[in-house]
Write a structure and sequence with these properties.
Two copies of one chain form a homodimer. With 318 residues, the first copy, chain A, is an alpha/beta fold. Helices cover 54% and strands 12% of the residues of chain A. The first copy, chain A, has helices at 3-8, 12-24, 27-36, 56-69, 86-100, 119-133, 148-155, 169-175, 177-180, 196-209, 239-254, 258-286, 291-300, 306-317, and strands spanning 44-50, 74-79, 106-111, 138-144, 159-164, 185-188, 228-230. Chains A and B meet through α3, α7, α8, α9 and α12 of A and α3, α7, α8, α9 and α12 of B.
Chain lengths: 318, 318
């Protein structure tokens, strides 16, 4: 049986191999994704994001165990764009695996890259597709930090959980404001520490300030108020409540037009991202040898500004 | 006198107006940048990055004051992609301004956006150019967080300072690994807190693990070992040492081929970023009305995969 056939029949080695090929983004990747695509669209994608030190990984593991207890399969994509050495992600996998080891209903993939902006978001989206096609009912995408790349990855999720902690101080709480807009649920993790109520209250107050959610695009509030859930992931406290909150949001999305609109917006953004990459690759092959280097040199010497240099490249191509 | 003329003659209102136009990225922006570009290339660009809560802003202010004490002019670009409401950046400006108010040798601009991935990096690069053209001798770019967007912005700098603190715990220190590669200097801020020596030691040990810097591209270590400097920004402690370290790195870059190579690489990346944006904009105008929506719908229904959809768009365009 071919790779896709084996993957669809539940072969875990075929799954791992496919993910590696997709991550490498070589010639085979597009063909594979094309074959897998008709089998996608069943998984519910859950994004879990928050600053370093909030205990996201522990929370994701606890959540995965809870889902497994309910008989559901879970794929986990742990994205860490800040991990410097390729070994880091692998080590992370192994530490995580200890907890969920030997359970074929769970698959964990850690991703780290030093590649260009957008490259990681692209690869993560493709890996999510592969796990979706492989039949995982819930795919959890864990992203570190609060940068824009993380926000883009979270945008690929149906339900976004923002994790905060009491201990990180007011300065950090203020920063969290940036993820207020993308959070469908908030988890105040390490809630046994001092300040948990304060953190929950701060989120609650910021919700009052934030623009209203309007996924329907009809100018009215959507009606979903992101719940704020206190968790202690290390003891499993609140994890069940978080899971039920996620499922409630899923049900909410599937009522009315919300889900279809989110999906169409995601598809549009995905097409544009692929287009940009392809267009640049195509142009590069048409630019005469040495032309790019000559323009870089001129811009470097301040004889030409960057926008005029690009205009020259585009004019020559028209 | 026209806007560019007034900006070049030191008019601060013309500078603020130009920055706003450049940020908006409208029709005037490219013309303005083209006119300003020949006047750029004199400023030394300093990137200061680190996780939330490390006291970067205080450190940047202290550094700016130190530079002013030495008679040098300083432009500051504070990039906070996580700030949710446009008012946040303005408020930030005002708080900062209290410290450095009324000094025409300092100009501070805070930037926040909810725009697409890469949009903020693009705008920040353009604002840096404007400050460079306006004659600021040092331009400090402060970025929040450890995400890829921040790393890209830092790449636009000649000298990158990574700020860490003792108090954020081992988990956070591990995350910092991601910025090891981009740091030309490390500041252990809040060094009067417990654990400062531990943090400095951790950085020192990771330096031993990291791939050698090879900006010359000749396969050998470049010889620059990033210094680790303890600072207490609130008291000004270590700020002078940090400044001297930055200047030492600047001198180092201007020896040999380092500086030109960094600059050419930066120009190439900048051209590619502009190209990608322009190519997508141009393609959009050529796609027949409704075609994009139809493809999104097909992909959404899983009748077509994203890569095949893009191939259709490109084939129709060829």
């Amino acid at each position: 049986m071919d790779l896709v056939g084996r993957l669809l029949s539940g072969d875990r080695r075929a799954l791992a191999r496919t993910i590696s090929l997709v991550e490498d983004n070589g010639a085979e990747a597009h063909t594979l994704l094309g074959e897998l695509y008709p089998h996608t669209g069943q998984a519910h994608i859950i994004g879990i994001t928050g600053a370093p030190g909030t205990g996201k990984s522990t929370l994701v593991n606890a959540l995965a165990k809870d889902y497994r207890g309910r008989g559901m399969t879970v794929g986990i994509v742990a994205v860490d764009p800040t991990s410097p050495f390729s070994g880091g992600a692998l080590l992370g996998d192994r530490i995580r695996m200890r907890d969920l080891a030997g359970d074929p209903g769970v698959f964990i993939r850690s991703m780290a890259t030093r590649g260009s902006l957008g490259g990681l978001a692209r690869a993560a989206a493709d890996v999510i597709l592969v796990l979706d096609a492989a039949g995982f009912q819930r795919v959890v995408v864990e992203t570190v930090g609060v940068g824009q790349a993380e926000v883009e990855i979270a945008n690929a999720a149906h339900t976004v959980v923002v994790v905060v902690t009491p201990g990180l101080g007011d300065e950090v709480q203020a920063i969290k404001a940036g993820v207020m807009e993308i959070g469908d649920l908030f988890a105040v993790n390490k809630a046994d520490q001092e300040g948990a109520d304060h953190a929950a209250m701060a989120i609650h107050m910021m919700q009052g300030l934030a623009p209203k959610d309007d996924a329907q695009g009809d100018g009215t509030d959507d009606g979903w108020v992101p719940p704020i859930i206190k968790t202690v992931a290390t003891h499993g406290t609140g994890v069940d409540e978080l899971l039920l909150g996620i499922e409630a949001h899923r049900d909410y999305l599937h009522q009315g037009k919300h889900f279809g609109q989110r999906e169409r917006m995601r598809v549009l953004k995905e097409l544009e991202a692929i287009l940009q990459r392809e267009l640049l690759t195509r142009l590069r092959t048409r630019v005469p040898p040495g032309k790019m280097e000559a323009l870089v040199e001129q811009v470097h010497r301040r004889e030409l500004d960057p926008y005029s240099a690009v205009a020259q490249l585009l004019a020559a191509d028209a």
